[in-house]
TrEMBL record:
Lineage: Archaea, Methanobacteriati, Methanobacteriota, Stenosarchaea group, Halobacteria
InterPro entries per record: DUF7344, WH-like_DNA-bd_sf
Protein name as catalogued: DUF7344 domain-containing protein
DUF7344 domain sequence ranges: 19-91
């Protein structure tokens, strides 16, 4: 069963949010901005440093490459943040629909059918 067939109006957005949140590195980046960062802007090095603390078994160079070339661009394409490659800065924007959609999703799973 596909979520979008169950929830034709919100399914595609829920699918995108769940896909975005399905990776632990992306969740750590979002968690960093939501709870640790001093403000909405950080350098890529600050983000990598935080992830390096939380995921100690990854080589820093590999982690930096993955964050720089995969995770930050994906979060940017999904509207969660702005990533300026030239300056190496990340500006967190959050996702205005995420809290409501995640609540709706939790309620859908909690509802007995």
């Amino acid at each position: 069963m596909v979520a979008s067939s169950c929830y034709p109006e919100t399914g595609p957005t829920i699918d995108r949010i769940l896909d975005t949140l399905s990776d632990s590195h992306r969740r750590e980046i979002l968690y960093y901005f939501e709870t640790v960062a001093d403000g909405p802007t950080a350098t890529v090095e600050e983000v990598v440093g935080r992830l390096e603390e939380r995921v100690p078994d990854r080589d820093r160079r590999e982690l930096t490459t993955a964050i720089h070339h995969h995770h930050l661009p994906k979060l940017e394409s999904r509207g969660w943040l702005e990533f300026d490659e030239r300056s190496g800065t990340v500006r967190y924007e959050g996702h205005q629909s995420a809290p409501a959609l995640l609540e709706e999703l939790a309620a859908a799973f909690a509802t007995e059918r």
